[in-house]
Every structure is written in structure tokens, then in C-alpha cells.
């Protein structure tokens, strides 16, 4: 599916009026191979991205127009509304993450064990804790928050938001 088709399919996403954003109804997954400026290749079907690659995809306009990473504050607003609800789990999923040590292998083969799949879901925010760590939104059966962080080299699904 081309990125313009994805933008049409997503529309404004799942609207969170109190946060002023729409959240994409599914993670971004490239429908074709993408070559980024620094000759990094993102393979068709890739689902887990280090934060630098996620930012490069958005900067290079390889994601649907107008969609971006949520801020930590937006994640916290969503968490307050939907912690422990089916809506929170549906939006942010339980897709787990690819650990830092497995990312090199994953980027070349798309075949590696995903950590905490089915128990928790993770997605990047645009806010950093430090140079090497960024805040993430975590969803689980009883939790939805944006107070945790992971190393920017880990691979997380790319959940995007759009201003309403």
C-alpha cells in the first residue's frame, strides 16, 4: 500500500480530542523498500525501528504527510484517559520490541525474537531523557503510560499521531 493510500485509510486516525491529536489505527509499515539519505535501507514490511531511523523516515517524508511521533506529554494525556482499557490496547497494541543487541540482525533479515510480544506494546515519543534514551509509550493489560524510556537503538513499532 502506497503512503498516500495509507494516509487515506488512516484519515485523522483515532481521535483524542482532549490531547488534540489523532493516533494512527495501526503502526507504520513501509509498503516498499526505502533508501534513506545516509544509504540506510529500510526493507518493505519492516515493523520495528530504532528512533534514529524513525526520525529519518519522517524527515524524508516517507511516512504519510502530517503524521509525526507523539510527544511524551501527548502520551501522558492519552494514558490518563485510557489506562487499562480495551481502547488503549487496541491503539498501542501488544507488539513488544526488538532489543538493542538484536537490531543489526533484525534490520537485515526481519527475523528475530521480539521481546515481550503479547504482554506489552511500545512506541517512541519525540522526547529524550538523554542523548541515548528516549521516552516511550508502553501499553499492557493494566498499564498505559509515557513515563518509561528505552535506548534509542532498540526497535519499536512506529505509531504516529496527527494534529486535529
**Overall pLDDT score:** 86
- SSE order, as H and E? HEEEEHHHHEEEE
Helix proportion of residues, in percent?
A: 25-40%
Rounded Rg: 15 Å
Largest sheet: 3 strands, antiparallel
Any low-confidence stretches, pLDDT <50, length ≥5?
A: none
Specify the number of helices: 5
Strand-residue proportion? 15-25%
**Coarse shape:** globular
Notable traits:
5 helices, three-stranded antiparallel sheet, 26% helix, alpha+beta, 164 residues
Note down, in words, how this protein is organized.
By secondary structure, the chain is an alpha+beta fold. The protein is 26% helix and 23% strand. The protein is built from five helices and eight strands. The strands form three sheets. A three-stranded antiparallel beta sheet has the order 1-2-8, with no helix packed on it. A three-stranded antiparallel beta sheet has the order 5-6-7. It has a two-stranded antiparallel ribbon with strand order 3-4. The relative contact order is 0.23. The mean pLDDT is 86.
Amino acid at each position: 500500500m502506497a503512503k498516500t493510500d495509507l494516509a487515506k485509510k488512516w484519515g485523522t486516525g483515532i481521535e483524542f480530542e482532549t490531547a488534540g491529536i489523532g493516533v494512527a489505527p495501526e503502526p507504520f509499515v513501509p509498503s516498499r523498500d526505502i533508501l534513506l539519505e545516509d544509504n540506510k535501507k529500510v526493507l518493505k514490511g519492516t515493523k520495528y525501528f530504532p528512533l534514529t531511523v524513525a526520525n529519518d523516515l519522517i524527515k524524508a517524508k516517507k511516512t504519510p504527510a502530517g503524521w509525526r511521533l507523539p510527544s511524551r506529554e501527548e502520551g501522558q494525556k492519552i494514558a490518563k484517559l485510557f489506562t487499562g482499557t480495551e481502547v488503549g490496547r487496541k491503539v498501542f497494541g501488544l507488539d513488544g520490541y526488538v532489543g538493542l543487541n538484536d537490531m543489526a540482525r533484525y534490520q537485515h533479515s526481519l527475523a528475530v525474537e521480539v521481546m515481550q510480544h503479547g504482554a506489552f506494546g511500545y512506541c517512541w515519543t519525540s522526547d529524550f531523557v538523554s542523548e541515548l534514551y528516549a521516552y516511550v509509550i508502553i501499553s499492557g493489560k493494566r498499564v498505559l503510560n509515557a513515563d518509561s524510556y528505552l535506548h534509542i537503538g532498540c526497535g519499536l513499532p512506529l505509531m504516529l499521531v496527527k494534529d486535529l
